[in-house]
Amino acid sequence: MAQLNAQLFPPGQYPVVVVGSGPGGLQLSYYLQRIGLEHATISADPGPGGMFRRYPLFQRLNTWSKPYADADRGTRPYEWYDWNGLVADEPELRSLVSQMMEGISYFPSRAEMEKGLVAFAERARVRVRYGCRWGSTRRDGDGFVLGTSDGEYRCRVAVFAVGMAEPWKPSIPGMEDVPHYVDTKPAKAYAGKRVFLIGKRNSGFEIADALLPWARQIILGSPRPPVLTVLTGGGVRAKYLVPYEDHVLGGGVFVLEAAIERVDRTREGWRVVTSETAGGAREFVVDDVIACTGFTTPLGDLPDLGVATFMQGRLPRMSPFWESTAVPGIYFSGTITQGAFGLRKHGGSGNSAAVGGFRHNAKVLAEHLAGKFGITVPRTTLKPEEVIPYLLSEATHAPELLNQKAYLARVVSFYKSRGITDEGILPLGYFVDEPGPDAIAMSVETDEHGHHHPAAYVRREGHVSEHALPPNALLNFEGMPYQQQLAGALSGLV
């Protein structure tokens, strides 16, 4: 194995270098291979999986994969019901995570997720140079030089799929001494103890859920209210709602809206000083404190290169195609792409923080990069009578549109010279902001009431108009009323 790895992607010159072998790196590398764009994929890890080789700590994901659903496994529509498997053109490479599941939950275990990623890498023959750690970056003419533990890689485009994998804590006095989520002990170690969890998003509720049978009392505290539903655009899924139910019933879990002012280590345990949102200060004396404050992107020296960041440096600023807004040629893949918000219709920003969303971003990015190197991705043409049924079918069945609401869209262009062309899936923000031929972008969005509905963005002579179609309780947007409304929006083009 070591000899084989040494032969893969030796240091040298490549058009594209991808850093990372988590789901974001594997998915992008797969599509770059399919397109035929030469690239090298390197990773510090000994094998595929990224963060799923280690997390979540308590071994159960909070995104679903439904082994049996209202679509056949291995088909494209099934991807809406499997938010964890990577996607592929070949049916035999789809839905691998759901195939690894034992059936005791539709939330895969960490081990099942890792097995699915390993199986994808092996069966798709995604080649990665493992054990190769990226350590430095510098400019070189119109490209970059990546310094690694194996030598230097030169490229015109560098894509970082390194995840939000580095533990992060806010600047609060005493926080440096507080164990982070990644340092959490086995649940049984907290038996009979009072535990204060700083943070109440995914990791906070995951830990609370694991400690419910053991801890005497659990307190979750942070300034913002908890995010409990996907209808708000992200946050804690139903998998982690039991601690909140315990809070509502007064069963020993307390969820507080309070800013953490200071954390003090005492002889007996800890003292957490807070200022509550409603006013007033309060101190909590507890046995243990855990910082469930999330992760940051390990950007290394990229900020020194000029890569702009936000959210206290935790994410890079990027374009709709996930390119650094400050350093052209630096791109991002995987969970980092959550830093591109899109149009944020009704506050939503797609699902790029999770595999179910960013796997689709990877295919779009691969095709975008192919264009930069003169590789043309084949496009199909449509007959006029095919356009409306095709777009409504995509709104009903396309996992890219359903997973990446208001971010990705199916685009069809109307050319006088070469007819009606399916341009593929593109970022909606790019379509709206950039000039182009007469065209339509079909997306799926969630309104202010949490209802899903199609939205058509029609560009005529450089001007874009928005047409929101009504919701449907069963997400079936192919009926005659939808055909009539879309025909009205496309009047004169079809």
Task: Explain this structure.
This protein has 494 residues and is α/β, with parallel strands linked by helices. Helices cover 23% and strands 26% of the residues. It has helices at residues 2-7, 23-35, 96-100, 110-123, 202-211, 242-249, 302-305, 355-372, 384-397, 399-403, 428-433, 480-489, and strands at 13-19, 39-42, 134-140, 143-148, 151-160, 166-167, 194-198, 217-222, 253-265, 270-276, 281-286, 288-291, 295-296, 309-310, 315-316, 330-332, 381-382, 408-415, 419-427, 439-446, 452-460, 463-468. Strands 1, 2, 3, 4, 5 and 16 form a 6-stranded mixed beta sheet that branches. A 6-stranded mixed beta sheet has the order 11-10-9-8-7-12. Strands 17-19-18-20-21-22 form a 6-stranded antiparallel beta sheet. Helix 2 (23-35) runs parallel beside helix 8 (355-372).
Set down the secondary structure blueprint.
Blueprint: H1 2-7, E1 13-19, H2 23-35, E2 39-42, H3 96-100, H4 110-123, E3 134-140, E4 143-148, E5 151-160, E6 166-167, E7 194-198, H5 202-211, E8 217-222, H6 242-249, E9 253-265, E10 270-276, E11 281-286, E12 288-291, E13 295-296, H7 302-305, E14 309-310, E15 315-316, E16 330-332, H8 355-372, E17 381-382, H9 384-397, H10 399-403, E18 408-415, E19 419-427, H11 428-433, E20 439-446, E21 452-460, E22 463-468, H12 480-489
Parallel strand pairs: 1-2, 1-5, 5-16, 7-8, 7-12, 8-9
Antiparallel strand pairs: 3-4, 4-5, 6-13, 9-10, 10-11, 14-15, 17-19, 18-19, 18-20, 20-21, 21-22
